[in-house]
C-alpha cells in the first residue's frame, strides 16, 4: 500500500488492507441481518482542518436513515490523524440500500469544503422466521412445519443440517415440543426467474405463501393449523432496471471481454431507449455509443451484449452506462454495476 500511488498517504500504518475497504458496490446482505461498517476519515494533507462533520446516512427505497453516532462537528483534525466511527443497522427492507458518507470541513484559509462517497448493497433473498410455541399442558409431536410458497416464489427450508449425504433436523431426532417450549423455523424465499425481472408484477405488497403446521398430542390426536397468506413489501426499481446476465470473474489486461446486460421496463408506459457508453479512467467500452435500442413495452425486457476492456490491473468497477428515454428526455445513469478482476496475462522472465 505504501508503494501504491492510488492509496492515501500513510494508510499502511492503519493496517487497512483491501479486505477492510468497502468497494462502491459490495454485494448482498440478507434481510434480518445487521449491517455494520467502520468509517475512518483521514487527513492526508499537511494542514490542520477545522469543524469536521462526518455524516453517514442509509438510503433505502422508502426512507433515509441517519446512522451517525454523533451529529456534532469535531473542532480540528491534525495531519495524519483520523476520525473514526462504527455504525450499525438491522436490515428490514428489500431492495438496494445506499450508504452515503458525507464529510464537510473548513481549511486554514477559511474555505468550506464538502465531499460524499456512496456504497451500495442489495437484498434479494427473503428470510422468513416462524416461532411456534406449545401453549398446552402436555408434550406434542411436531409432524410437519412447512412453508407453502405462492406462485411467485421458490422456498428452501433451513431447518436441517446435511452430513455424510444424510439430512438431520436441527431439533434432533425426536421432534417433541414440551409445554410452553418454543421453536424457530427458518425459510429462504427467492423470486422465480420468470417473476424476478417483472418488477411491475411483484412490486408493492405481494403474497409470499402460508405456513402449514401439523402435530399430534400425547394421545395420538392429530391437529392442523394453516395460516392465512403472508405478505411482504416488494422492492421498487424505478422506471428502468439494469441487471447483468453474464459477466466473467477474471479478465486479461487490455484484452476485450464480453458482458450481457438485461434492461427491464418497470414503468407503466412504453419507452424509446437510447444507450450511451461513457469511458472511465480504467474501463473502456468498445462499440458505438448513442445507439438506439428501440421501443420497450411495460414489463418487457431486452438483453444486450456489450464489449469492453480494462487498461488497469486489479479489481475494477464497471461504470458509465446511460439510458435515455427519448419520449420524456429522461436519462438514467448506471455506475458501479459490477466488478471484474483484471490480471496481466504476461509475466516478465526472471533474469
From TrEMBL:
InterPro entries named among the record's database cross-references: TRAPPC13 (IPR010378), TRAPPC13_C (IPR055428), TRAPPC13_M (IPR055429)
Coiled coil: none
A single Gene Ontology CC term: TRAPPIII protein complex
Residue ranges of every copy of the Trafficking protein particle complex subunit 13 middle domain listed in the record: 117-235
Domain Trafficking protein particle complex subunit 13 C-terminal, chain residue ranges per copy: 248-342
Alphabetical list of PANTHER family matching this protein: TRAFFICKING PROTEIN PARTICLE COMPLEX SUBUNIT 13 (PTHR13134:SF3)
Entry protein name: Trafficking protein particle complex subunit 13-like
Source organism: Cyprinus carpio (Common carp)
Gene designation per UniProt: LOC109110969
Amino acid at each position: 500500500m505504501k508503494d501504491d500511488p492510488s492509496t492515501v498517504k500513510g494508510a499502511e500504518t492503519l493496517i487497512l488492507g483491501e479486505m477492510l475497504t468497502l468497494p462502491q458496490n459490495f454485494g448482498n446482505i440478507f434481510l434480518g441481518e445487521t449491517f455494520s461498517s467502520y468509517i475512518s476519515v483521514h487527513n492526508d494533507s499537511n494542514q490542520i482542518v477545522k469543524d469536521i462533520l462526518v455524516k453517514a446516512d442509509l438510503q433505502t427505497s422508502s426512507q433515509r436513515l441517519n446512522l451517525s453516532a454523533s451529529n456534532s462537528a469535531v473542532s480540528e483534525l491534525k495531519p495524519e490523524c483520523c476520525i473514526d466511527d462504527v455504525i450499525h443497522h438491522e436490515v428490514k427492507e428489500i431492495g438496494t440500500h445506499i450508504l452515503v458518507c458525507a464529510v464537510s470541513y473548513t481549511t486554514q484559509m477559511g474555505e468550506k469544503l464538502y465531499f460524499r462517497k456512496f456504497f451500495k448493497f442489495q437484498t434479494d433473498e427473503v428470510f422468513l422466521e416462524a416461532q411456534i410455541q406449545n401453549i398446552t399442558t402436555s408434550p406434542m409431536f411436531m409432524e410437519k412445519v412447512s412453508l407453502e410458497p405462492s406462485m411467485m416464489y421458490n422456498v428452501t427450508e433451513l431447518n436441517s443440517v446435511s452430513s455424510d449425504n444424510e439430512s438431520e433436523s436441527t431439533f434432533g431426532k425426536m421432534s417433541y415440543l414440551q409445554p410452553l417450549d418454543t421453536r424457530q423455523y427458518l425459510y429462504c424465499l427467492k423470486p422465480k426467474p420468470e417473476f424476478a425481472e417483472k418488477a411491475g408484477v411483484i412490486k408493492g405488497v405481494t403474497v409470499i405463501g402460508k405456513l402449514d403446521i401439523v402435530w399430534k398430542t400425547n394421545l395420538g390426536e392429530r391437529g392442523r393449523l394453516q395460516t392465512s397468506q403472508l405478505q411482504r413489501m416488494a422492492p421498487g426499481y424505478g422506471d428502468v432496471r439494469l441487471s447483468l446476465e453474464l459477466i466473467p470473474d477474471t479478465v486479461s489486461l487490455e484484452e476485450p471481454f464480453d458482458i450481457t446486460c438485461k434492461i427491464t421496463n418497470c414503468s407503466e408506459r412504453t419507452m424509446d431507449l437510447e444507450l450511451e457508453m461513457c469511458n472511465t479512467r480504467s474501463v473502456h467500452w468498445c462499440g458505438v455509443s448513442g445507439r438506439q435500442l428501440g421501443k420497450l413495452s411495460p414489463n418487457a425486457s431486452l438483453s444486450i451484449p456489450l464489449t469492453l476492456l480494462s487498461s488497469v490491473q486489479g479489481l475494477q468497477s464497471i461504470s458509465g452506462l446511460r439510458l435515455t428515454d427519448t419520449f420524456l428526455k429522461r436519462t438514467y445513469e448506471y455506475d458501479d454495476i459490477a466488478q471484474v478482476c483484471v490480471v496481466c496475462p504476461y509475466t516478465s522472465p526472471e533474469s
